[in-house]
Amino acid sequence: MNPKYDECLEACIECLKACNTCFDACLREDDIKMMAGCIQLDRACADACAFAIQAMTTNSPFVKEICRLCADICESCARECAKHEHEHCKKCAEACLKCAEACRMRSL
Amino acid sequence: MNPKYDECLEACIECLKACNTCFDACLREDDIKMMAGCIQLDRACADACAFAIQAMTTNSPFVKEICRLCADICESCARECAKHEHEHCKKCAEACLKCAEACRMRSL
Amino acid sequence: MNPKYDECLEACIECLKACNTCFDACLREDDIKMMAGCIQLDRACADACAFAIQAMTTNSPFVKEICRLCADICESCARECAKHEHEHCKKCAEACLKCAEACRMRSL
Amino acid sequence: MNPKYDECLEACIECLKACNTCFDACLREDDIKMMAGCIQLDRACADACAFAIQAMTTNSPFVKEICRLCADICESCARECAKHEHEHCKKCAEACLKCAEACRMRSL
């Protein structure tokens, strides 16, 4: 695997971890009503990252297209998480932005 | 595919649909705080069904073990959904029980 | 779920089944060397359909983008399967084309 | 996440990578006919690891049961890969054994 490829794979793994950690933590928050959008996007984003991870590691001919889609979903999840003050949301927003950037580069 | 096999596959597909519909509907409920356990198990159960569907349709040598695990997760999700009065929860509980039974048969 | 939505969901389920059946059957063929591209695309296409099924049933805000990607992958898998005379390949090509069409409609 | 948990998560990530790399490489081998069992188990094992990764990172109540199943599948894939001399098979067998051990510990 070339370096650019590896970087994107690692960013997707970190993003999946952050999204699922945030998903679980949001479900335990008192203000869970406010977190509904975050819970939905955390799952959508983790699933997109999981899909991209499988595509990259199997050397799928659709890696670029899948990474482009993953970048879009990561950006959307980052925007939602950035609205909240919870530490898990901030960490998730950061991981999503980093992943979006790596996926965008990988999709060119 | 033999009939028993097909029945289990269809039950998993219906259960995945019901769990994901319930997941999305729970996130829109006013009493979302009460639904946190349901949201978590809906996702866990839909993912287990998706895993079982891939295993059955690829003719995996681990179909029995995977269906046994899927049955356990479906039963747990059914118990949680059965606590709530929402129509989507009742439908989900019913689909989960049916899937648990079909997966239990398939795992023998 | 509206009718168009349902139709696309069912087409993805049928396509996932056909791709995974073809994947398993290709691995048992004598001319497996010729089937390598088919085996790779069958898996990629089944995974794309599984991803689209989760997105549609959870009411993801990215359904259109995911269905557009799924349509592209289905078309590619259909082209590869159409090159082979095996019954499972012909059935798979047919299911992929039907799914590509339904996903393309859903993505508009 | 406690250390034991993290170790199992990392082992599953490395195993998923090794299985998918082996899957792709097997499809390019001249003696692909001999690799059919390896190709099938590589996919089954990567999917089991992906399922376990989602379960661990979402803090699923079924982590132990899922890790037990994942350990069984990893052991089976390791046995198959160990039959072959290809470098990607040897690396895969090693990653599978390490993952099986970590999952077995996590399942207790």
TrEMBL record, chains A, B, C, D:
Signal peptide: none annotated. It comes from Psychrobacillus mangrovi. It comes from the Bacteria. It holds the Pfam family Csp. CDD domains: DUF326. InterPro entries: Csp_YhjQ (IPR005560), YHJQ-like (IPR044543). This is Four-helix bundle copper-binding protein.
